[in-house]
Design goal:
- The chain has two helices and five strands.
- It has 104 residues and is α+β, with helices and mostly antiparallel strands.
- The protein has a single domain, classed as Ribbon (CD59), CATH 2.10.60.10.
- The strands form two sheets. A three-stranded antiparallel beta sheet has the order 4-3-5. The protein has a two-stranded antiparallel sheet with strand order 1-2.
- Strand 3 and strand 4 form a beta hairpin.
- It is found in: Membrane.
- Keywords: Membrane, Signal.
Length: 104
């Protein structure tokens, strides 16, 4: 009887954890200005990385973010079939998990 109660309690706790635990969808991306979320953001779209060359110094700077502390979610794609922010001449976006864009 005691073993049965213990098993039931464990099952109930497991089910409770499944309902309480937050779920993550899509890609988990590095975000260099998202300190409140441990420098990560989650998206159903793309991770975003921008590489720029600073005039005068020639230093290369990388930014891992877009649109005011957000990943590039599908709802922000414009136009939907080829988002301006992901045009290859300006940026390179990842729709799969890759080290270059995710950096985590």
């Amino acid at each position: 009887m005691r073993n049965m109660m213990s098993s039931s309690l464990i099952t109930n706790c497991f089910v409770l954890i499944l309902f309480i635990a937050p779920s993550v969808y899509g890609l988990l991306c590095h975000c260099d200005i998202c300190s409140d979320t441990n420098f990560t953001c989650s998206t159903d779209g793309y991770c975003f990385t921008a590489t720029t060359l600073e005039k005068g110094t020639g230093n290369v700077k990388r930014s891992y973010r877009i649109l005011v502390r957000r990943c590039l979610d599908r709802e922000r794609w414009f136009p939907p079939e080829n988002p301006v922010a992901c045009r290859r001449s300006e940026t390179y976006c990842c729709s799969t998990e890759c080290a270059t864009c995710r950096r985590i």
